[in-house]
Amino acid sequence: MDTLIKALLACVIGLVVGLWATVLSLRNARGFDAATIGPWTVSEKAGAVDADPYTRAAMERSGEIPLALGEGLQFIARADDSGAALNPRCAYLVGRATPPTRYWTLSLVDPQGFPVENPTRRYGFRSSEILRGADGGFVIAVSANAHAGNWLPIGSNGRFALALRLYDSPLGATAGAIEKDAMPRIVRESCS
Amino acid sequence: MVDVLMVVLGAAMVAALVHIAAILIIPLAATRDAFARLSPLGPVNATIALEQPGPQARLLPYRDPAVASAFCRFDLAGGPLRVKAPADGSGFVSLSFHTRRGGIFYAITDKAATHGVLEALVVTEKQLRALEAKDDEDTPVQDLRVVSTAEEGFVMMRALSEEPSLYPRAEAQARALACANEAIPP
Predict the structure, then answer these.
(1) Contact between A167 and B59 using a beta-carbon 8 Å cutoff
(2) ipTM (interface predicted TM)
(3) Which residue of A96, B25, B49, B144 has the fewest CB atoms within a 10 Å radius of its CB?
(4) Which fold has domain B34-181?
């Protein structure tokens, strides 16, 4: 083989693989800064000036306006407590507590981060409106079929994620140190 | 055999370089970042309310459906920026200050409000020095001065609605964000 052809081949393959790796790494959008707590991930530095290059590139592509640490924290779960990816054909129970915070909201988003259309137009719950048990705990049923109590509908057959936001939380930069037990559990009930 | 190995090795090195370069260049290109998406919505200093988050609102991802938001873009070339927002303590309200490139350089919530108003003066390093030179040493500075690392950026206001029926109130609160350049006193 001629050296020039070899060099050219290496360049072309390298370019394709390099760009493909970039697209993949941005799609899975988690920088070095992201912390994992059970099924939840949180990027404490999402909006920080010193965020890592992967986080910054992912933010640029998605257009997301992240919460500042002083405002709150956003946790995303794409899997249940057992580690299995969230499945639109399954029903999940999410609860019963969150880390300390003034307000929290829990909503359902598609892989791009947008609410999913559903007939009840229920896209999420706030801590201030949720039905609670006698002990102050809560359970949110995440399922395609109607459910008594706090029902968060899964509106489509596509993949989805759960977004938990804590507003005015005292945790701030120590979010990565939250115990798994302090986060809401995501337990799969049944699948159709 | 050696030929194939050389090509694979070469390709791996090129791939690594391309990947690192792409990751570093993307934030600089900034064609799809939040600032680029917000800019067409209105002029500098104007308060623009964002659509209620929902399946049809596709401009910005990962917005909380419970939170009403509004923003104003700023350009400190026209002088320091005075930002005012109502925060009467009835619910969570926050202001975050973003540079054009997406870095957040400051944020406050309604807990920091005085007399039901969140107020800040966004300045560049140079404007801060000019202001400090004019400060009267006997009277304490009343303004919350926030130094921006860039001349251009945007201020984001978020107001949480405690119930779905209260969303319009949160939206009205977000719309009340006010941004204006002001001159440095002579």
Answers:
(1) no
(2) 0.87
(3) B25
(4) Immunoglobulin-like (2.60.40)
